[in-house]
Amino acid sequence: MIDAVKSAFSRALPPTLKVSKMMLKVFIPLSVLTVILRELGLLAVIAPFFAPLMGLMGLPGEAAITLLAGFTNTIYAALATTAALDLTPRQVTILGVVLGIAHSLFIETGILTNLGIATVRIALFRVVVGLVSGIIMHALMPAEVSGIVLQPAVQGGLFSWGGALLQIGTTSVQIVIIIFLITFSYELLAGWKHADRVKKRFTGLTTAIGMSDRALAPWLVGVFVGITYGAAMLYQFVEKKQLNHKDACLVTVFLCLAHAIIEDTMLFVVVGGNFWWILLTRVIMAVVVVRLLAMNDLYKRLLWIGLPKETPRAPS
């Protein structure tokens, strides 16, 4: 058991350091930039232009910078701006859902299109579903939602650069720890001798959603690890003719709406979001959308949302 833990630790550390380095190069500069924009009053200037759309989701106009950062960059960029704004747990939770569905659109859409399992229109589909989810959440969520910013010692009081930088640094460390714990847990589970037995217990979930059992592996990898890994496995399955066109389309849609659900959710929990509201909303939204597309092969009529019309081609 000790050897297994040591092995999982050694496998988890390199990717954690690599991802953390990439994250901090985005997170820290954007966090500082957002604080500067806020203190100079520039966020207050742009807020009125986005206020109508933000208002539909119960968000202040300033939150538009968070959405734009997430849509065009990574979820870490969005998180950086979120941490620098004075938002309630309810508002952070709504942002967590919207950005969980639609973030890193340039990068992830590029991966999907290069593998031939989606077209560029899938990015617009994700943005629309994300915004609609935010509007629905604002209408259905209670006025008070629990959530605790994990660095309360640097919250509140008069602004100081020391306090702001301490908050950014504390959040950065917490995110790195979360990334490591998730990676370590995955590596530990992958080396577990009973992993295959656990996998079999998931059999039937995909059929309940509308996909075949053959879609289980790429679906699970994408949901828990990320869209990049899920899409790569999905492509391999289709290339080997282990999945049909319907499965490829439905898995693609599900992963676009709910991927890396534990990591993405925990990142927003760090800045005050509610874990269960974010997680369950994304999963339920993905299940409902995919189930509807599976009924009577409705997906065939909606290929224009960005789904492939034929078997994925080899990546260029």
General description of the model:
By secondary structure, the chain is mainly alpha-helical. The chain has one domain. It contains 15 helices and no strands. Helix 5 (89-101) packs antiparallel against helix 14. Mean pLDDT is 82; it is low at 151-157.
Q: How are the elements arranged and paired?
A:
Layout: H1 2-40, H2 42-56, H3 64-72, H4 75-84, H5 89-101, H6 105-115, H7 121-140, H8 161-190, H9 195-201, H10 205-209, H11 216-224, H12 227-239, H13 245-257, H14 261-270, H15 275-294
Q: Number of helical segments?
A: 15
Number of domains: 1
Order of SSEs = HHHHHHHHHHHHHHH
Question: Separation of termini?
Answer: 43 Å
Low-confidence segments, given as residue ranges, are: 151-157
Overall shape: globular
Give the helix/strand class: mainly alpha
Overall number of strands:
0
Work out the radius of gyration.
20 Å
Provide a compact summary of the structure:
With 316 residues, this protein is mostly helical. Helices cover 71% and strands 0% of the residues.
